[in-house]
Amino acid sequence: MLLNDRQLKHIKLWQASRVSQTVYCQNNGLNKKTFSRWLCNYQGLSQVTIPSLIAIDVTSPVTIPLGTSEPLRLRLVNGLLLELPSTSSPRWLAELLQCLD
Questions:
Q1: 36 plus 76 within the same structural domain
Q2: pTM for this structure?
Q3: Range of 96's domain?
Q4: Do residues 70 and 85 make contact, with C-beta atoms less than 8 angstroms apart?
Q5: Using an 8 Å Cβ cutoff, are 21 and 1 in contact?
Q6: Helix (H, G, I), strand (E, B), or coil: what is residue 90?
Q7: What pLDDT, in 10s, does the model give residues 6-60?
Q8: Same domain, residue pair 16 and 31
């Protein structure tokens, strides 16, 4: 279920308030059960993963001979260098890069 702007605004304000749901609802004239349902819907929506593309700059083509243990090196946008074994699973690497996005 999609949330409207008013519901989203209340969820964001409650998160920033650092008070309990009960106190927030009392202070804002909201029904706690209704607010809890909004929050449940919001949390369900935020768990939906949206596929995204990750830009990768290849500075030069690399061929790693079979059996070589040369690590795979990725320089991230923030300048950090990530070194992984050349035997890393492409699926695992894709999941890792999505987490870093």
A1: no
A2: 0.45
A3: 52-101
A4: no
A5: no
A6: helix
A7: 998 998 999 999 899 999 999 999 999 999 998 888 877 665 555 555 666 666 6
A8: yes
